[in-house]
Amino acid sequence: MRRNTTRWSVCMVLFTSAMLAADARAGVFRLRRMVVVGDSLLAGFGSGGFVGVGRPGQVDSTPAFIARRAHVRLPLPVIDGPGVPPQLTIVDANGNGRLDPGEVRRTQDGLGFRSDPDKVARNLAVPGEDTQSVFEKIAPQDVAGELVTGKVNGRDVLKFLILGLPLRSEPVSQVSRARDLHPSFLLVWIGNNDVLDMATSTNPGAVTLTPDEFGSRFHALLDALADTRAGMAVANLPDPTGIAALRPAAGDVTSCHAADGTTQPVAADDLLSIDLDRNQLPTPPCSKVLNAAERAQVRAKVSAFNDQIATAIADTERARGVTIAPVDLFTALDQVGANGVDLNGDGVPDLTTRYLGGIFSLDGIHPTRTGNALIANAFIDAINARFGESVPHVAVARVAAHDRLAHSRFRPAAEVPFGVIGDSEGDDLESFFTKMFRRVEDHIDDLRHRLNDLFDFF
Predict the structure, then answer these.
(1) How many CB atoms lie within 10 A of CB 198?
(2) How far apart are CA 152 and CA 75, in angstroms?
(3) How much is the average pLDDT of 15-42?
(4) Among 36, 118, 171, 436, which is least packed, fewest CB within 10 Å?
(5) Is the model's pTM score more than 0.85?
(6) What is the four-CA torsion angle of 223, 229, 231, 232, rounded to 10 degrees?
(7) Interhelix angle 329-339/292-320, nearest 10 degrees
(8) Are 183 and 413 within 8 A, CB to CB?
(9) Half-sphere exposure of 389 (CA within 13 A, CB side)
(10) Strands 104-106 and 185-189
(11) Residue 64 has pLDDT above 90, yes or no
C-alpha cells in the first residue's frame, strides 16, 4: 500500500510539473490579443529604414520582444527587403577601420512591400505618426488617386502598407483599427514626434504645440481606446535631446555665428547634429547649437507634456473604468543616458547612448535591437507591477551579444565625426521623416505595379 501511495505521489508531482510547464508555454492570457498603437519607436523602425528583418527590424521591435516573453502571438505588418526605405549601413570606403565622414549610407535602392498583404497585423504603429495623425484615416482610394495623378505622398503610402492591408473599402486610422481588432490589451507610446523637432532642429521653438493642446489630444486618444475595455500600458516621452544623433561640441566646435553677426562661445557640452554640414565647420551658425539653457527649455516642455499624459491616464482610469499601467520612459532613458548599462557586472558600462554605443541605431534616433530590449523591459516592469503579471525580462546581454550595433568595431573612441551620414541632403536630422517620406516618393515606381495590382485599377 505504501509503495502504491508513493507511486501515486510521484505521478502527481510529475503531472503538476507538466501542467505548470504547459501553462507557462500557453502565454499570458491578458496579452493574448495585444494591439500596438504608436510611432516608429514601437514599429521597429531603425537605422533610417523600415523592414521586417534588419538592424534592427520589425521582428526586433519592443512589442515583439514583449510578445515573445509573454508567449503570445503578435502578427506584424512585415515589410520585405530592401525596406521602406532601405536601411543605412557602414561603408568603410577607405578601409582604415575607422568611422569617417560620409561612411554611414544606404547601399540599396528601391522599396519593399508587405510580405503578406492578406495578413491582419496587430502592431499598428506607423513611423512618423503623432498625436494628431493617429486619428487621421487613409483609404485605398486616396493612394490609388495619388498614383493616377502622380502626386504621391510617401507618408500615405507607408501608412497604407501598415493599416490598409488586407484591403478594405473603408478608410482606417490607428485608432479605428485598434478598436476594430477587439484587443485584450493595448501597448501605447506616441507623442515622440510631437517633440522630436526641438532636438533635430536644435531649437526649442520648433514645437509650437502647447501642453494643453497636447493634453487634449492625449485625452481624446485614451478615451477612444478605452472603448475597447482593454487594459493598457501607456508610456510617456523621453528627453529628445538625449538621442545619439546629437553630440557634444567637445572642443571640435568652440564658437558659433549669431544671427546679429557676432561670434558666440560654444561650451564643450553644447549639442550639435552628428550630420552637421562640414562646410559650416569650425564655426557653424548658433542656430545649429543646442546650449544648456535651450536644452533645459526642451526638457521643461517635454516634462509638461508628460504631466498631461499622467493626467490623461488618471482621468481615463477614473472616468472609463479601465486599468492603465504608466511606463516612465523619461526617467528610464535618462538613467541610461547618465550611467549606461553594465551587462557583465564589472562596473564599466557596456552600452551607452553615444553614437554606436549599442542603444541607438545608425540614424542616431531609433533604437538598436538591444535598445528595444531595454525598452521592452521597462514596459514589462510596468505591466507586472500594475496588473500583477510575471512576464520575464528580455535577456538584454544575450540580445546584445548577437547585435552587431551593440559591439561595432567602428565605435568611435571619442565623438563621432560631423557629417557621418553620407547620403544626406543638408542636415539629415532636420525634418527627419519628411525626408524619409520623400525618399519613398522618389522610388514609388518600385511599388506602383504592386499597388496597381492590388487596387485592380489598371
Answers:
(1) 24
(2) 28
(3) 73
(4) 118
(5) yes
(6) -30
(7) 150
(8) no
(9) 25
(10) unpaired
(11) yes
Query: How does strand 324-327 pair with strand 231-235?
Result: parallel
Identify the helix (H) or strand (E) that includes residue 187: strand 185-189
The 3-state secondary structure of 10-54 reads HHHHHHHHHHHHHHHHHCCHHHCCEEEEECHHHHCCECCECCCCC
Do 428 and 435 meet the contact criterion of CB atoms below 8 Å apart?
A: yes
* Residue 446 burial (CB count, 10 A): 16
| Average pLDDT, integer, range 398-407 | 97
Q: How far apart are CA 172 and CA 334, in angstroms?
A: 35
| Burial bucket for residue 283 (CB in 10 Å: 0-12, 13-18, 19+) | middle
Which pLDDT belongs to residue 217? 98
The secondary element (H helix, E strand) that includes residue 306 is: helix 292-320
Quick one: cell of 257?
A: 555665428
Q: Which of 163, 181, 178, 183 lies closest to 224, judged by CA?
A: 178
Say how far apart CA 345 and CA 362 lie, in whole Å: 27
Q: Average pLDDT of 437-452?
A: 86
Residues 6+ apart with CB under 8 A from 31: 66, 67, 70, 72, 184, 185, 383, 389, 391
Closest Cα to residue 301, out of 213, 427, 395? 213
Question: Are the beta carbons of 368 and 361 closer than 8 angstroms?
Answer: yes
pLDDT class of 427 with cuts at 50, 70, 90: low
Q: What angle do CA 418, 81, 190 make, to 5 degrees?
A: 65
Strands (E), 192-331: 231-235, 246-248, 255-257, 263-265, 271-273, 324-327
| pLDDT of 188 over the 90 cut | yes
